[in-house]
Structures are given as C-alpha cells and as structure tokens.
Amino acid sequence: MWPNGREELNKAIDTFLQVSPNEPNNIPERTTRLFINQLHRNLDQVDPSKLDSILAYLKEAGFQKQRTFNQAIILFGKLGDLSSVLQLFDKMKKLNVPPTTAVYNSVFHILGKTQPAKALALFKDMKSSGVQLNGVTYCILFSVLKQVGTFGEVQLHQQELVIRGIPANLMLYNNLMDTYAKLHRMEKVLQVYNEMQKINIEPNAITYTILIDGYGKNGQVGKARRYFDEMLRKGILPTTKTYNVLIQLCTSRNDISQAVAYYEDMAKRGLKPTQVTYETVLAGCLRSKRADLVDKLSKALRDSEYVGSTIIYNALLNYHRTQGSPAQFHQCISEMDAKGVKPDVVTYNTLLNFGAEYESPEWLDSKYKEMIARNLSPNIITYNTLLKGLVRNQHFEKAWALMAQDAVHPDVVSYNIMVNGYSKAGQMEKAEETVQKMEASNLMPNTTTYNSLIQGYVNCSDVAKASAVYQKLLKDPFVEPDRITNQLKRRYLMRKSRLL
Fold first, then answer.
1. Helix and strand numbers, DSSP H then E, in the chain
2. Which family does the UniProt entry place this protein in (predicted)?
3. What residues contact 290, with CB distance under 8 A and at least 6 apart?
4. What is the pLDDT at residue 272?
5. What is the pTM of this model?
6. How much is the pLDDT for 50?
7. What's the CA gap between 321 and 358, in Å, rounded?
8. What separation in angstroms does the CA of 392 have from each of 66, 346, 427?
9. Number of C-alpha atoms within 13 angstroms, CB side, residue 366?
C-alpha cells in the first residue's frame, strides 16, 4: 500500500530506490509496475530532484511484460523525455513485446511535438502492425498534420475515420477543425462544424475558439465576432484562450479600445489573464502609443505572477526611449534585472540607441562591453547605434575606427550617420568626402544622404550649394524627394534662392 501525501510519497520513493540501487533487475517486475502506477497517479507530488534517479532506475530495469513497458513509456511520455521513450520502445520491439495502442499513441504524441516527419513514419508503422487505431490516434495525427500536412492528406485521413468505424466525438471534431483552420481552409472548418451538430455533438468553448481564431486570421473579422456572439447566446462561457485570440485579432488591426474592452471583460467573468494576455494587449498599446493604457497594463503585468518576456521588455524600453522618458527607461532596466529577465541583442541595441541620445560615449562603451561579456553577437544595428553616439559627441576619428573593424560591414545607414554628423557640425567638406567613400564602397546615396547635405549647407548659409545638391537629387534616377526634402525646399530654398 503506497502512502498518501507529498512527504510520505517521496519517502516511499527513496526507500524503493534504495532497495537495490545497482541491481534493479532483482526487484520483481510486479513491484516495479506498482511503483510506476503510483508515479502516474501522483506525478504532481513527486519531488523534481528525484526524477533523474527514478528515470535512471526505470531505464535499467529488466522489463519483460507488456504492461510494465506500457506504463513506463506512457510515464516517460508524460515527462516529455523523448530519448527515454524511444529507448524503451526499441527495447520492447527487440524483446518481441508487442506495443499496445496506448503505447503507440504515447510515442506518436511525444514525437509529433518536435519531430513531425518521424511521427508520421511511426503512424504508418502503427497501421501496418495491425494494432487498433482509435480516436486518440487520429487526434494526434491531426495535430501533427497541422505542422507538416497538406489539405489532401487531412481529407484522406478524415475519410479513414469513417472507413475504420472510429466513433466521432467532440475532441476528434475539434482537432479536425483546428487542422483545417491552420491550413486556412475555413470552408472545411465550417463543414465539419455543421456535420458535428447534425449528429448531435454540441460545440464547446474550444470549438468556438477555433472558429473565431480561424476566421480572424483569414481576415474575416465580422464572422469571427459573430461566432463569439453565438457562443455567448448559447450560454457557452469563453475561456482565457478565447479572449487571447480576440485580443490578438484586435491588436493586429490596431483596434486597441476593443482589445482593452475584451481584457476588462475577462476580469468581469472571473477569468485570470495569462502572460500572453498581458503582453498581447500591452504590445498593442505600445504600438499605438496609448500612454494611459501603457502605464495601466505595465503595472498590471508587474503586479501579476508573471515575470514578463524579453520581447515585451524590449518593446517597453523602445517605447520609453521614443517617448523621451529616461527615468521610466532606467526603471524598466532595473525591473528586468530584478526579475531575472535575460537581455538579448535587441535589448542591447535599444540600450545603445537610448545611450546615443542621452548618455556619454563612456556609457555606450560600457554597455557594448557588457553585451560582449554576455556572449551576444553585435549586428549592424548595434554598430550603427554606436556610431550615432560617437558622432553625436563629434568623436569622428573613433567612429571611423569602429567602421574599419573587421567585424563591421558598414551599410548605407552607417555612412548616412557620418554624413549627417559632419553636416550638423558644419564640416561640409568632410561630409562630401564621406559620400565619395560611400560610393567607392559600391553603396549609393539615398534621400537621407541628400537631405543631410542640403540641411548642412543651409545651416552654413550656402543656399547655392544646397540648391545644387537638391538638383543632383532630382537627376538621380534611383532617388525621390521625400517629406523632409520638400520641407527643406519650402522653408529655405524657395524663399532664399531663385534657382528653384
């Protein structure tokens, strides 16, 4: 008799493993099977530190009986240990112990998560072995086909269900609908939905969430909302996943007010937002620069049990940078450190961008070194951001030295930063020389290059040269004036020169 309760259970596990730690084959197989069965029932109460010892024991135990293999493989499947699942499955076959449907399904399921091609090969093996396929098998199959299947394959296997006489159920229909939705075949999703109701299988929240998500991702927002309304009319309560889908749909269309309304409706229904909920609605508010909502949702995420992802913190950092809020920017960095959120290359590029606008070259250099120390590889955005900081402080020699490094491959943006820096400093000869270097590197000036030169000459009160650059821009077949060019023309050139 195995004990109840976390503490007693873990003591019993210790005792079992100490009986014969180096000779698991000496323990009767029936006892091992009982041990595995108890692990199945109480897996959530097992001390995680004991799992390695348990798994090591099970891999060495000399199983002979089908039931023991079945239970062990299903347990490894629950733990997500693909390597051990396959090891035991191969061992089972070598001993001519026939796998049951449950074992095949367990191996099929865990393979399907990471190796869909191998999972489909296993499905063929399963069919040829003569083992009975069931509804669970086809649910797993449709989940795999979402990743690598074709429309024709899904249709073929849908027909197999009828041929094999596999009873239809809600889980099977939901999986089939979801597979068609992922393939963007909403006419088939609707067909399956209508079919299930004809045989009195009532849709649930999962069914409606699939419909809402499928129509939303296919741009049929009206239909997505109609199915949400139908769901409510039938008294089917939306789940957190339903709301996450609706919020994602709204933010993708920049309908932030409706996204926030769905977020607030969740709370009214007693549904707990997930990290996905917080981050999706917050990301939408950041993109639309809704300051009131950004503060509110940032606080909600901060006060929740969720740490927050690097992606959302990167978005917050960039928002505070573009809004000109250094204090909140630094607060966000401190929050990342305190929560243990790992920065990535985008984080450091944002930090350097902020530093190029607000901090000293020394601060920039320290952050760059910190980035390297974390084994993060700088990219051209990193180097261009460093260039901005150096040029802003008129450290042109250091900027050229950075561009000359082997790891750096300057692009048009790099040269434009230099041209703009020289133009702002009134060093127009250097600016023109930089354009020549740019062209010598087989990089062609763009509108930004011309605008910087025009602004530089205007600042130096040399309208004639500014006008000459403007004329050159007009003759360049690969460049067109933009809004800034036209503003410069109206404000300075047309007023001060008769040349235009």
1. 29, 0
2. Belongs to the PPR family. P subfamily.
3. 256
4. 92
5. 0.74
6. 73
7. 9
8. 73, 21, 14
9. 6
Give the angle subtended at the CA of 130 by the CAs of 129 and 136, to the nearest 5°.
95
Look up residue 494 and give its two tokens. 């047309």
Sequence-distant (6+) residues with CB within 8 A of 245 are: 209, 212, 213, 216
Q: Which residues of the chain have pLDDT under 50?
A: 498-500
- Distance of alpha carbon 228 from alpha carbon 231, whole angstroms: 5
* CA atoms of 68 and 435, how far apart (whole Å): 75
Phi first, then psi, for residue 433 (nearest 5°) are: -60, -40
Nearest residue to 432 via CA among 441, 423, 440 = 423
Q: Report how far Cα 326 is from the mean position of its chain's Cα atoms.
A: 28
Best CA proximity match to 417, nearest among 402, 290, 95: 402
What rounded mean pLDDT belongs to the chain? 88
Residue in the block written with tokens 């460049």: 479
Tokens of 195: 């079919």
Distances (CA, A) of 5 to 34, 37, 141: 17, 16, 37
Whether the Cβ atoms of residue 88 and residue 79 lie closer than 8 Å to each other = no
Supply the Cα-derived Rg of the chain in whole angstroms: 32
Residue-wise DSSP of 195-253: HHHHTT----HHHHHHHHHHHHHTT-HHHHHHHHHHHHHTTPPP-HHHHHHHHHHHHHT
Report whether 104 contacts 72 (CB < 8 A): no
Reported as a single tens digit per residue, the pLDDT across 142-162 is: 999 999 988 899 999 999 988
Helices within 20-134 (DSSP H only): 29-41, 51-60, 66-78, 82-94, 101-114, 116-129
Q: At what angle do helices 447-459 and 428-440 cross, to 10 degrees?
A: 160
- Indicate the length of the chain as a whole number: 500
